[in-house]
Amino acid sequence: MRQKITKSSFLQKQQRHSGLRSKAILLVSLAGILFFTFIFSSFNTIRVKTITFTADDGLELTADEYIIDPFKPYVLLFHEQGSSRGEYSTIARRLCKLDYNCLALDLRNGGNDNFVSNQTAKQLREKHLESGLSEIEQDMLAAIKYVGEKSNLPVVLFGSGANGSLSLKVALSDSLVRAVIAVSPGEYFMPEIKIQDAISDLNKPVFITSSKAEFPYVSELASGIDIDYVTLFEPKQGEGERGTRSFSVDYEYNTEYWLALILFFKDLM
User: Is the pLDDT of residue 41 over 80?
Assistant: First the structure.
């Protein structure tokens, strides 16, 4: 017996088909963004060199500089605690394809990552200098000053873990910072400071992401920021990864993180 098609069931089917078409169009659009970004932009030659400059307390800071054009803006890359500039060796090259130079800094609260030793932390031990919150901020501010003097353009901060939290704090007070990306930030500096309170007046574009398990906590951290400025990305395809590992080729679903990040950069143009 033929099933009777009512007006309501017809409309439901139409809405379902329309939704599927919308999703398909969105996927094609996002695929197009990736294609043009990572294929056509790949003709830029990336020159990589290791440099040093000095923080206010005299500590020599080591960084890897990824240059496509000295007149382009910079993304400053701040590894998570216990890590090194090597954390960003792959990410930096991808960000260069978005038409940015990159500077991956060895912060003083670091160690080793991706077979790269943190030279700043080594200098810190030799000179017996401090490595608290304010001193780590000194390192970040020195990096902002360094690239600001080179390009004279606003910068984007990209920080991971505890240093993602500090990137948000530094972005609030430094006029040279255009936007900030924080992956797996958290309240790492309690009771000295509560990051959630410290960044509540942040009025610059912010992109925050994490693993699915961390997402409620990073959402709470960002809850004081005006909704017009903040983009919160929660992974949908998998459980996600902590910190920059979510952008690694070793993580099966890294593409959804990259798509969200590319759209954020697209809005900055």
Answer: no
